[in-house]
Amino acid sequence: MKITVINGTEKRGVTCKLKNIFLEQFQSAEITEYYLPKDCPSFCAGCTSCFMRGEETCKDYLYVNTIEKSLKEADLIVMTSPVYVLHATGAMKALLDHLGYRWMSHRPAPEMFKKRAVIITQGVGAGAKSTAKDIKDSLSWWGISKIGVFSGILINDIAWDRLPESRRKKLAYKITKLAKRFAKINYDKPAHTKLIIKVKFSVSRIIQKKKVGLDNEYWYNNGWLGKSRPWKS
């Protein structure tokens, strides 16, 4: 089993601790981790080159392609981010922006329709759910149906060792429960594709039938403008 972890910060804080507790349930897995912004240090320039001329023309292609290749090969994707001003970290957002061309409405990777993912986030007060949503929006539009979410609230501190023991136990119990649920999955079988993903695909397909250019060619070559579907291949 392969797990790819995208850490939204290089800081080894509470989010990292929770991620490590989660990964304890996958002792035999091959785990590849990326830390942002170190492993993808540049912001998306908004040049639209990836959309119009292909992802390989992006100025940051070497960084983005390395991470995307790992995501495609993974059986389970884990995305982590602490709450920054009620949302995901800027580094995480920058990576998601870079992968905009992989949204359903453009050139989704067929591998993503069969995958599972987990989002781990936490904050002192509000914002954990909105942070998770920042990431979940992209995962869903990539084609992933099975997405688990852990959103923890620290209440009174930002350091794990300074949290009350009762709070640490509660957080550890909650994320371990989620980890055990995902550890029981048979990853030899592709994830079930939910109706909402199929609806997004159908709407995108209608749009692609009316377009010309790189996206349209991609859909045509995959057979998606016909009867082929990525969750059936």
Order of helices and strands: EHEHHEHEHEHHH
Overall average pLDDT: 95
Radius of gyration: 18 Å
Helix share bin: 40-55%
The number of strands is 5
By secondary-structure content and strand pairing, the structural class works out as: alpha/beta
Largest sheet: 5 strands, parallel
Strand order of the largest sheet: 2-1-3-4-5
* Approximate strand percentage: 15-25%
Number of helices: 8
Q: Report low-confidence residues grouped into runs of 5 or more.
A: none
Distance between the termini: 21 Å
> What overall geometry do the principal axes of the alpha carbons give?
globular
Please write out the topology.
Blueprint: E1 2-7, H1 14-23, E2 30-35, H2 49-52, H3 61-73, E3 76-82, H4 90-98, E4 116-123, H5 128-142, E5 146-153, H6 165-183, H7 195-209, H8 214-222
Parallel strand pairs: 1-2, 1-3, 3-4, 4-5
Helix pairs in contact: 1-6
How would you sum up this structure, described in words?
Helix content is 40%, strand content 15%. It has eight helices and five strands. The chain has helices at 14-23, 49-52, 61-73, 90-98, 128-142, 165-183, 195-209, 214-222, and strands at 2-7, 30-35, 76-82, 116-123, 146-153. Helix 1 crosses helix 6. The chain is globular and about 60 Å long. The two termini are 21 Å apart.
